[in-house]
């Protein structure tokens, strides 16, 4: 029996002298104040911070060189476009660098000639518009007064424009934006020079670039890379061919309209509409149609309306009839795929993506098509769009059948009554048949 004190409680045994009782663990399994940090935790924290810093640095660097990467991509597709011409000249004994230089020189001469003709046309037209602005304004005012029954005068309009705050603010904003325009022009020239330089290197050193890529790949992969390169050259060339053909058709169509209306500089305007509408994606059509409308407006305001209507109608014809047919034949992709690729390219890279989307998708489709296993299609009517169900006859068909049945029954009854009883006559002529004797002929 355990000893108890006077209060009746059990006496607790005191620990021996000089010893410390063991401490009990805290509730919930919490570590005590003397617990150490795991050895892997500092390393994990340092590694996580290093990964975050590397990701931020890589993201910043990628955003800084995005413009350069886009320029290199444009230069690569431009080099693919001129690859057939350079290879043909190099196969005849000409050095590849010289052949590339001659191709670029031809493109530069054609571009400079077009810009010169266009600039001279614009300069002459601007001078003509400035000199004849009062007459143009009088003709417009007379047309507005005659059409809408108003009483406008040129003097009132000129005074209102000269004393308006809108004109003063516009002049101030234009003067302030001259530096921005100059900076954009210089940036565009630098970007054009960058694209031309990279495309020249890609075209001139094309074989060396292919050898450098194939040198780090096994032989099987080398064949695939070379085949993909050839496909890219064919598809890019086909795309540019289709664009050039559509530019030619568009230029001729607009030239005929402008010449019929008597608009000056019709040949140059036709070339302008054809090139700008085809090789500047998204907004090229609107830029191409604005200049002919402006020139036509100087001749007759109604001519500008005719030009606008023709541009809109021809654009719909080109989008839904001409472009799908040419693109599907030259680039060999479905019109819906071409349309979707342009939308996706515009969403990813803007105007540049819209320009290179179709040849890129065509190259990818042709390259992946070699690895897709195809099977023979069963001869099922449903494959060709024919449904297998049996259709019930129409109301008119059933009425004809019901109408023809009584007539057929009447004709059959008349034929039966008119036919003689041949069997009875034959039996009577034979006479009685003796038992055990078979009739004649059996």
Task: Name the average pLDDT.
Answer: 77
Helices and strands, in order, run as HHHHHHHHHHHHHHHH
Unreliable stretches covering 5 or more consecutive residues: 1-12, 422-429, 431-442
Question: Helical region count?
Answer: 16
Strand content is under 5%
DSSP helix fraction: over 70%
Which geometry do the CA atoms define? extended
Radius of gyration: 45 Å
Largest sheet: none
The number of E-state strands comes to 0
Distance between the termini: 135 Å
* Secondary-structure class: mainly alpha
Main location: membrane
Protein name: AI-2E family transporter
Subcellular location: Cell membrane
InterPro entries: AI-2E-like
Task: Describe the protein.
- Belongs to the autoinducer-2 exporter (AI-2E) (TC 2.A.86) family.
- Its main location: membrane.
- Residues 25-34 have a biased composition (Low complexity).
- It is found in: Cell membrane.
- The chain is an all-alpha fold.
- Among the domains are: 67-161 and 187-216, no CATH class; 232-371, no CATH class.
- Helix content is 75%, strand content 0%.
- The chain has helices spanning 40-64, 66-91, 96-131, 133-148, 154-162, 165-176, 178-204, 206-214, 219-261, 266-279, 284-299, 301-330, 335-349, 351-369, 395-418, 422-430.
- α11 runs antiparallel to α12.
- The model is unreliable at 1-12, 422-429 and 431-442 (pLDDT under 50).
């Amino acid at each position: 029996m355990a000893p108890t004190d006077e209060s009746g409680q059990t006496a607790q045994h005191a620990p021996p002298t000089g010893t410390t009782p063991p401490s009990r663990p805290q509730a919930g399994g919490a570590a005590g104040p003397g617990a150490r940090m795991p050895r892997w935790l500092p390393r994990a924290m340092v590694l996580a911070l290093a990964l975050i810093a590397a990701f931020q640095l890589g993201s910043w660097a990628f955003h800084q060189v995005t413009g350069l990467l886009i320029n290199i991509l444009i230069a690569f597709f431009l080099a693919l476009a001129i690859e057939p011409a350079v290879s043909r000249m190099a196969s005849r004994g000409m050095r590849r660098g010289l052949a590339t230089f001659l191709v670029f020189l031809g493109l530069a001469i054609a571009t400079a000639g077009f810009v010169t003709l266009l600039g001279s046309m614009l300069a002459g037209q601007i001078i003509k518009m400035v000199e004849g602005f009062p007459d143009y304004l009088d003709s417009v005012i007379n047309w507005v007064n005659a059409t809408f029954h108003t009483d406008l005068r040129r003097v009132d309009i000129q005074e209102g424009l000269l004393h308006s705050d809108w004109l003063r603010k516009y002049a101030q904003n234009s003067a302030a934006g001259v530096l921005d325009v100059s900076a954009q022009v210089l940036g565009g020239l630098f970007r054009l020079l960058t694209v031309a330089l990279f495309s020249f290197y890609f075209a001139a050193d094309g074989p060396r670039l292919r050898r450098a890529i194939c040198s780090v790949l096994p032989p099987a992969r080398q064949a695939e890379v070379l085949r993909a390169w050839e496909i890219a050259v064919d598809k890019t060339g086909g795309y540019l061919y289709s664009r050039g053909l559509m530019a030619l058709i568009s230029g001729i169509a607009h030239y005929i309209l402008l010449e019929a209306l008597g608009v000056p500089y019709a040949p140059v305007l036709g070339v302008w509409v054809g090139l700008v509408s085809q090789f500047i994606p998204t907004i090229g059509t609107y830029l191409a149609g604005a200049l002919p409308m402006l020139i036509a407006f100087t001749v007759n305001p109604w001519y500008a309306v005719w030009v606008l209507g023709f541009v809109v109608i021809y654009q719909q014809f080109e989008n839904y009839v001409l472009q799908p047919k040419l693109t599907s034949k030259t680039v060999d992709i479905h019109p819906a795929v071409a349309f979707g690729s342009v939308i996706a390219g515009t969403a990813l890279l803007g105007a540049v993506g819209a320009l290179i989307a179709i040849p890129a998708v065509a190259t990818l489709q042709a390259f992946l098509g070699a690895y897709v296993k195809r099977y023979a299609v069963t001869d099922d009517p449903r494959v060709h769009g024919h449904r297998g169900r049996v259709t019930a006859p129409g109301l008119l068909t059933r009425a004809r059948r019901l109408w023809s049945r009584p007539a057929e029954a009447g004709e059959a009854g008349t034929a039966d009554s008119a036919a003689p009883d041949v069997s009875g006559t034959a039996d009577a002529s034979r006479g009685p048949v003796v038992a055990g004797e078979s009739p004649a002929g059996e």
